[in-house]
Amino acid sequence: MSIKKILSALVICLIAVLLHAQNQDTVAQWLRAVEVTGVPDALGRGSGVPLQILEGETLQKLSVLQMSDALKLMSGILVKDWGGAGGLKTVSVRGFGAQHTGVAYDGLPVIDCQTGQIDLGKFSLENMQEMSLISGNSDNIFMPARMLAYSNLIEMHSKKPVFKAEKPVNLSVGFTGGSWALLNPTLRLENRLMKKHNGRSLSSSVNLNYLYSKGNYPYQIHYGGATDSTSRDRRTNSDMQSLTAEGNLYARLDDSTQLNLKIYYYKSERGLPGAIIYYRQGAGQRLWDDNFFTQFRFQKKATARWVFRMDAKYNYAKQRYLDPDYLNMEHRLDNKYRQQEAYLSAAAHYSPHKLISLNVAQDLFYNGMTANIRDFANPHRITLLSALSGKLEIRQFTAVAGLLHTLAFHWVELGEAAKPTNNAAPYVNLSVKPLKREDFYIRLFYKNSFRMPTFNDLYYREVGNLSLKPEKGHQLNGGLAYRKYWQGKWMLSATCDAYYNMVLDKIVAIPSKNLFIWSMLNYGRVEIAGADVNLTGSFKWSKRVRLELTGHYTFQRAIDLTDRNSKSYRHQIPYTPHHTGSATLLLSTAWFNLSYTLLVSGERYVLPLNRPANRLAPYTDHSLALMHEFKLKAVTLGLKAELLNIANTQYEVIRNYPMQGRSFRTGAWVKW
After folding, report:
1. Which of 172, 265, 387, 520 could form a disulfide bond with 671, CB atoms 3.0-4.6 angstroms apart?
2. Predicted confidence (pLDDT) per residue in 463-487, tens digit
3. Rounded to an integer, what distance in angstroms lies between the CA atom of residue 616 and that of residue 310?
4. Model pTM score
């Protein structure tokens, strides 16, 4: 019997044990719903999995503009940035590629079935209440089955309206400008459509965000080694403009029933900056994106023990890619892609005892894609996800276990379709608080995960491979978490996690007929071992003055075990540094907020063979931000100034794609 089957059986047994772990019953009491607002635990100490949280209020004080900027401040995460506002920004967590990392917005995933990669540059932080990074599966088991399908999950939660008794409307208008013609006006309007009465309420919010940037920043060219000649030039074809519009409706029908509706639209046009190779920038490609989705949630607490949830989502995305210098008979490439998804999810949460909770979730979704490419398959896929989860909490011990089953069917309009996918993936989280009087936790989790091949992997002409198997991932993590207060002024919070990941049947592209025709194969095997250390310390000088220092460090050894005869066997995989880190220093006062941000990355290699010619040098990036808010009667005014990359460091995250040097941003906002 395979290890996965044994683990699946153990998980099912553990869930069954949870049902019978306690014989004592309690008297069910129906309590009126109460909304509680507080400061979240930024390091998720009591969680059985590593959890990092950044609040929107904190992000407003730091030198960040997009979600990709904020994620750089977390441990275990690598943001691949091609530079400029228009450059693609994807994420890798603990050595797993972007396709293994889910991105969820207000409880439902954001999907790209074509490539499996979500461009993080499209999300603004202006409307963000908080964002979190979860490695493994959350201890919160009441969620759609699809949220359990990822090795790691980035969750974003938008701001919910909060009204004063005498004020039914909130309005916020802001503007940010900066180097290289950066223009970013924003607007947020909140309406209380119905006052709270007998548990009923109705409110809405509308957000508009426009971003424009020329992106023509200067950079330095090295024509040879470090001692060879250099020159200065400016980035070209790095312009971008985008519009994001979002509307939300929040309804409570009574104390036990709530409805949420979201409508989202994103439109952008950008230049794709090319690689800087000696004297040539090679940039002429353009990309247009149109993305619309609407999602709906209904949640009902039927009894003190039963809670039901239903989610629905429709997503439509259109993308146009233009390459005016493509080497074909037309001397141009003008590809247009359309993809859509229809998604339904139902979940039932049952609490037979105050120490035990169970959740069953069933998801069904359809994906379809068309393109104007000759002989394109126009693939379609229906996926059925079934999840069973259980949670046991006994004093200072918490255990969570679950099993996710995936069944997927493909069909195409032209050619042959991929074979059906059938997979079961278990997970287990454990958390123990061994010392009753100390805020100290020990945690352990195991997760088996996999990712299905994307439509590009399977069907892209002259590249796709219909026989591809899903990539399989095994995650094992052990960690410690601690927090301590002294004299009501000092606080120290720390977590340390060691992890081991293994990726099997890794999908890789290798040349087949020539350098222009590649094939996708299940050929790779990657072993990842590492450690994440997070520290947060604060000192409260007085009611008006507070100093907070946060540090994150990651060590990661991600080696290629694909082929013993290969020269790159046991070498570090591309673009994965052994050492990365970040630090923020935040001084909060009644008069101003001052923050300092440091990003550090060790050396990386751009190809599987770790030799000097493939090495990217380490770098550091320093930024400052100064913010001030003050009130004039019923109006709040805010000002912010930022100095980015203070040392004007010339560095690259991706080879031949230089990052911005020293720059500035200034912003102002008014709230009524």
Report:
1. 172
2. 667 777 888 889 999 999 999 998 8
3. 48
4. 0.87
